Amino acid sequence: MYLTKEEQQILDGELGVGTQKAMELLVAIGDAYDAEKTIPVNRAHAASSGQEGDLYFVELLAEGGAKCRVPTSTNPVYDLTYFHGLFDIPKGEAEVARRVMEAYKRVGAILSWSCIPYLSENIPLYGETVAFSESSATPYVNSVIGARTNREAAQSALASGIIGKTPKYGLHIKENRKGTFLVDVEASLRDEFDYTLLGYYVGKIVGYGVPVLTGLPRRPSTEELINFCAMSNTSGAISMFYMPGYTVEASTVEEAFQGDLPKDKVTVTDGALREVDEELQTTNGRIDFVMLGCPHYTLKQLGEVARLLEGKKVQNGVSFWVCTSATTKVLSDKTGHTDAIEKAGGHVVVDTCIDEPCWIAYKEKVGMTDSPKCAYYRRFKEVMVARLQDCVEAAVKGRWR
Amino acid sequence: MRSLEISLKCHKIIGGCGEGEALVSHEPICFYLTDPKTGVIREKTHELAGKNVANKVLVFPSGKASSVVQIDGLFKLASNNLAPKAMIVKDVETVLVVSAFIAKVPLVDKLEQDPFEAIRTGDFVKVDADKSIIAITRQRT
Fold first, then answer.
1. How many CB atoms are located within 10 Å of the residue A155 CB?
2. How many CA atoms lie within 13 A of B100 on its CB side?
3. Fewest Cβ atoms closer than 10 Å to its Cβ: which of A82, A267, A391, B128?
């Protein structure tokens, strides 16, 4: 990969060890893809996590004096002070989380601790070059917003945030953004939950590729698009997709395929989505807790939870969690949603997600969620997956079905 | 018994040198699904289930699974000195590059021959990623 004079100086360590390590990683990725050069990025999102591999890299950069050159937001970890007294988190795990959060602060990241930063804390623009890791973020940013990012790891995104560059490869090149797989939707897609099933199914069928979806019954909502992105990039590796008419980069199917004919095709029926739904369930009956907000709930979704819980109480012995970002919670507090949820016995928790070690108390428990992604990465024993209304009803009754 | 030695050019991704017994997998590998305390592949349906990746020269088509788990998996093996000595792959992707970078495992691709034809499990393989060359020694009886 061609390096500018400044990039070579960074690689030689002239600007400190932290930026040197970040540059080394970008060069390795550039070499892997035979990238000719780097291109500037305007922003980055690092899918930080409370895990040791993440800790190693961000501390290496922080101790080496590296600072983010462009806005770089962070993914959920967990707020130890919030969980103190609620859960017994093993000391070793808690220490990793504390150090990860501290190190991201030292490198000057935006401490969003949110998996949907593209809605409020760090919003890409159409056509912008960015480096966004996190399952929903990569496809949302490419497809819904029309910015350009590869399927980054936390560390490669952070390195790009530090250097302000990324190697030019993959989805930064127009011809790699063309559709590969035609998905004809016959399913009725009534609500957000149907979009999670659609995403999960499309990810499984396509695996690695760029699906082009036709036949959608109406314009999907923001939340439906977020769900589709998160699930398709969990069951598969979908960094980009097209819904011509609703996503920005191609207004027709032909344009999405850049003149080529689709190599593969699948039709999605209500029956196929019902099968996905059934596959996700590992048990039925009694539940210990409900976990919502994977990906983080928006203000609209918090409002819906508040409305569904009105005049109801979460069953004794059942915990009810809604994960969201700190930014969204401020508005939820002001709007009254948080009060309504708490009055019914639920919790609105920020800065974290189900895939964090803080939930270790649920290791042997039965959970219910509206998110197949939450079920896939679950840190609890058994799971039921259903739409929000069913989750709320189950929380009130203490069981489902 | 005599041995056969051949050298092949390759393409460096993560530099360094490593040598050891080859372990060949025709399926992608997720390091999160190895036992971090032994290096044994725990994924029951994997063709190498029960085999140990520790200190091997691992030959496989590509990585798989989410970035967080893949990187953490290889990092944990490396922390316990159980990572492969080097990795030879066919299709590289960003997450595998990051994993190898963080775990400091030499990583190469684009062998001048198909790695699955050139290398068999049990061969002794030296990878010199910095010089973009590998040497394969096979015992012949």
1. 32
2. 34
3. A267
Which tokens belong to A109?
A: 């990241």
Residue A81's pLDDT band (cuts 50, 70, 90): confident
Q: Could you give all domains of chain B from N- to C-terminal order, each with its CATH number?
A: 2-140 (3.50.30.10)
Regarding the domain with residue range A281-400, which homologous superfamily does it belong to in the CATH classification? Aconitase, domain 3 (3.30.499.10)
Contact flag A154-B71 (C-beta cutoff 8 Å):
yes
Residues pairing with A320 in the sheet: A290
Q: Which residue has the tokens 């003149």?
A: A259
Q: Which residues contact A85 (CB under 8 A, 6 or more apart)?
A: none
B62 is catalytic: no
| DSSP state letter for A262 | P
Residues 55-84 of B with CB under 8 A from A: 66-68, 71-72, 74-76, 79
Catalytic residue selected from B3, B7, B66, B79: B66
Cα A325 to the chain's mean position, in Å? 12
Which amino acid does the sequence have at A298?
A: T
Q: What ipTM is given for this predicted complex? A: 0.91
Burial class of residue B132 (count of CB atoms within 10 Å of its CB; 0-12, 13-18, 19+) = middle
Burial code of B61-84, b = ≥16 C-beta within 10 A, e = fewer? Answer: ebbbbbbbbbbbbbbbbbeeebbb
Q: Report the C-alpha gap between A150 and B90 in whole angstroms.
A: 20
Q: Where are the domains of chain A?
A: 5-174, 178-278, 281-400
CB contact under 8 A, B94 and A150: yes
Q: At A318, is the secondary structure helix, strand, or coil? A: coil
Mean per-residue pLDDT of chain A: 96
Q: Give A56's contacts in chain B (Cβ within 8 Å).
A: 75, 102
User: Coil, strand or helix: which one is B128?
Assistant: strand
Across chain B, how many H-helices and E-strands are there? 3, 8
Lowest-confidence region among A189-193, A359-363, B53-57, B137-141: B137-141
DSSP H or E stretch at residue B4: strand B2-9
Share of chain A above pLDDT 90, in %: 90
A333 residue type, one letter: D
CATH class in words for A5-174:
alpha beta
Residue A174 predicted with pLDDT over 70: yes
The rounded distance, in Å, linking the Cα atoms of A171 and A162 is: 20
- Name every chain B residue with its beta carbon within 8 A of the beta carbon of A137: none
User: Nearest CA of chain A to the CA of B4: how many Å?
Assistant: 30
Q: What H or E segment, with its residue span, contains residue A265?
A: strand A264-268
Residues of chain B above pLDDT 70, percent? 99
pTM: 0.95
Judged by DSSP in three states, A304 sits in: helix
